[in-house]
From TrEMBL:
Stated name of the protein: 5HT6R protein
Keyword field contains Transmembrane helix: yes
SUPFAM superfamilies on file: Family A G protein-coupled receptor-like
Classification via PANTHER family: ADRENERGIC RECEPTOR-RELATED G-PROTEIN COUPLED RECEPTOR (PTHR24248), IP13425P-RELATED (PTHR24248:SF199)
Membrane topology: Multi-pass membrane protein
Major location category of this protein: membrane
A GO cellular component annotation in the UniProt record: plasma membrane
Biological processes, Gene Ontology terms: adenylate cyclase-activating adrenergic receptor signaling pathway; positive regulation of MAPK cascade
Keywords, sorted A to Z: Cell membrane, Disulfide bond, G-protein coupled receptor, Membrane, Receptor, Transducer, Transmembrane, Transmembrane helix
Subcellular location: Cell membrane
GO MF terms, alphabetically ordered: G protein-coupled serotonin receptor activity
Lineage, highest ranks first: Eukaryota, Metazoa, Chordata, Craniata, Vertebrata
Length: 134
């Protein structure tokens, strides 16, 4: 005897596929962000560390060149607050919450009282009078 397949199996398969695709996109985006951050770190600081070792071994590095490489590393540190908000939505929200210069000008979210009054067919005057009472 064969048991016919129910409709729930393809639906469950599509649900798991959608769930997997969503998480794989998040993992890909996280990997991309991490790759960019680490790549920039190595590009900025690796010459400094190599030059630092060379300076200790042979003393053949000029002070001006060493300063330039040090400032290249410092520039990497200033780029991190720019890179994080570009690639991470949660970091962007946190910056907007705590830094006044990064806030978006938007309408404030309505309170629960005003939403319930709006949905109860009481009209705008009831919401205004309720605000005066509170």
């Amino acid at each position: 005897l064969q048991v016919p397949c129910g409709l729930s199996e393809p639906v469950a398969g599509s649900e798991s596929r959608r769930f997997t695709n969503k998480h794989s996109r998040k993992a890909l985006k996280a990997s991309l962000t991490l790759g960019i951050l680490l790549g920039m770190f190595f590009v900025a600081w690796l010459p400094f560390f190599i030059t630092n070792v060379m300076q200790a071994v042979c003393g053949c590095v000029s002070a001006g060149f060493f300063d330039v490489l040090t400032w290249l590393g410092y520039c990497n540190s200033t780029m991190n607050p720019i890179i994080y908000p570009l690639f991470m939505r949660d970091f962007k929200r946190a910056m907007g919450k705590y830094l006044p210069c990064c806030r978006r000008t938007r309408e404030p979210r309505p309170s629960a009282i005003s939403l319930s009054m709006r949905n109860s067919n009481s009209g705008p005057h009831a919401a205004t009078s309720l605000k005066n009472v509170l």
